Amino acid sequence: MLTLPESLRDAFKEPLGPVTIDADELLAAAAETRGERAAPDAPIIAVGDVVTYHLREAGRVPDVALIDGKTERETVDAEIGSALAAADDRRLSVENPAASLSAELLEALSEALSDADPVIIEVTGEEDLAALPAILAAPDGASVVYGQPGEGMVRVAVTPESRTEARELFEALDGDVEAAYKALGRVPDGDR
């Protein structure tokens, strides 16, 4: 549905938020954002196996987790793979090619965000670009957490400002952006 053009690859290397290696610090910042935005139930969305694992190890099961069994295109180590496989969260399985956002992934993300219980979206392919639609679909006060290769975890506080930045990148992808918004259950200019 949407693909990352070669000309935009560098734009996606810059983190969309602060980077940390401390899951407890990240969770404290997420709680602060929920308080500031008067959104005590705002979700935490984790994009990536290692990020999901670290949040779970810190005692916070992500409301939505997107995993693909890989980190930096290599299979995650056995400890992480086993821990995530043992999680008893509801699971959705989708296919999503590398450097892409499939309708299947976008629809699953929308469905998972509407579920009151934690959901793991298991991706065959890659989930690397999923932070963008997660930022667009999540409510104000949510946190989207993804891995920054070689650096740590990036936390994006979902606000109108971060949604605008994500929207600009999302709309710069190649493909049918209107259909992608529809699959995500959003209108192009609509903040939550």
Features:
192 residues, alpha/beta, seven-stranded mixed sheet, three-stranded antiparallel sheet
Layout of strands and helices, then pairs:
Elements: E1 2-3, E2 19-20, H1 23-36, E3 44-47, H2 49-57, E4 64-67, E5 70-71, E6 74-75, H3 78-86, E7 90-96, E8 100-101, H4 103-113, E9 119-125, H5 131-137, E10 143-148, E11 152-157, H6 160-172, E12 174-175, H7 177-184
Parallel strand pairs: 3-4, 3-10, 4-9, 7-9
Antiparallel strand pairs: 1-8, 1-12, 2-11, 5-6, 10-11
Helix pairs in contact: 2-3, 4-7, 5-6
Strand order of the largest sheet: 2-11-10-3-4-9-7
CA gyration radius, whole angstroms? 15 Å
Whole-number count of domains: 1
What is the number of E strands? 12
The residue fraction in helices comes out at 25-40%
**How does the helix and strand content classify structurally?**
alpha/beta
List low-confidence stretches.
none
- What is the overall silhouette? globular
How much of the sequence lies in strands comes to 15-25%
Query: What can be said about the biggest beta sheet?
Result: 7 strands, mixed
